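Example A, followed by Example B.
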Amino acid sequence: MTRSMDLHISNQLKYWKQQKDKIINIKDEKLFINKKQNLPFITISREYGCGGVEIGETIVKKINRDYKSEPEWALYDKKVLEKISEDTGFTTNLLNVMTHTSVNKITNVLQTMFAKLPSHLTIYRKMGEIIRTVATNGNAIIIGRGGCWITRDMEKGLHIKIVAPLKWRIERISTLCKINKKEAEKLINKKSDMRENDFKEYIKFDISDPKNYHLVLNSEKLSPDECANIIIALIKIKGYL
């Protein structure tokens, strides 16, 4: 987690704690929950090697620079989500900004979603709880981790898919990881198989189906900056900024 992204997340937690502390009665709690439900979130699914994290970081920087959203936007990628999952204190702080009503709702939804999954997949439930909590709080960009599937029923979620030709991704990964192209291709195939198999076999959610997304972008044809501008334009078109 970069220092700037860590700061954005900390500021989000601070803001929601301040808002929750203002709750005095049931009416205040309903207003608090409704306010969260009025905030958008974005999930970015991507083929391995497409630069989804870079695109997400660019979106956060642009929105926080050009708009005065409360709370400010934050990025939750694999490293951030795993840190939250492993850090008991961080997880507790995240859940502490939620009301009992919101936490119970998340718990009930996840019980239904994970009820029929084999035991080796139920380990994802904690990650699912964190992702649902982050999405409920709003103004978040969630990278991967099944975010599109876990939040598919939630309002004001925009689901983005980033794709690119295999040859382009091989060259990009080869350069970034300083490995030869054959090794890069093996890495891409391994990561792709790991991501797709469980979803298709157990979850019955096709992450490659464009109909599961609001927008599909090709990062070979569009720079991270251009992808970010298009996604921000979509947020504005939907009336979320």
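Example B, a separate protein, is given below in the same form.
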Amino acid sequence: IVSYNTKELLEKCLRSAKAATKSLKVEIFVVDNDSRDDSAQMVKEKFPEVNLIANAKNVGFSKANNQAIKKAKGSYVVILNPDTEVMPDTFKKMKEFMDEQNNTAMGTCRVEYPNGRLDPECRRRFPTPWRSFCHFSGLANVFKGSGIFDQYHMGDVSPAGAHEIDACMGAFMIVRKSAIDEIGMFDEDFFFYGEDLDWCFRFKEAGYKIIYTPITKIVHHKGASSGIRRESEEISKATKESKKRAFKESTRAMYLFYKKHYKNKYPFFVTWIMFVGIWLLEKHRMTKA
């Protein structure tokens, strides 16, 4: 769990995780990225059994997760956001599910907002130029459920059953440690966004499967650290400056991902259109900050 100024939510997350791991042999890591709300001190005092890594500065989501992955001894690694709460059966059911899967490197469960609505980011396809255009232009909303226009968040596939996906999000991932040893850890060029998508892309490129299953769920108070989501704006402690950085990092991640994985697959004019689109999106998002 990588924490950054989410003390109260982190405490709830750890309490839920502790309750959900009673029957399992686990180790829990919290990597605190120099929070200013005494998050690290809270972990020391209330959860002395947790492995705490307190960074002297904010090193980003990728690097902080890698710090813990390097120390992890388990056969599975779970990446969990501090603004989440797991169910009592989440870890047990997901471990059992992964034990039964062949050639599956990563699994995820249903991720819900506090109001019970599905967080669509928990199962998605890779953001090709066409899928990105349909998503950001609103065509996906106009043609909900369409296999042509609503591909980005897999609107054409029901979330009611288990199925293979391109990617899940870093709020909850259960990953086979042997697969991590082969593929590598998070790419630290991604500071705050896009690292989960990049990781999934690399696993899929190597021939591994990523599976979504609704056999259990977690609750996600999305965006509490960044402060740029409507779902958590009332509980976020993010400052204006941290919001600006979050907006910038969200679009920088798009640029990095496209440059790394798609630039050589598409003609120059498609790449130019994509980069202009990302630039315009950043300008739009910065006005919100």
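On Example B: The mean pLDDT is 93.
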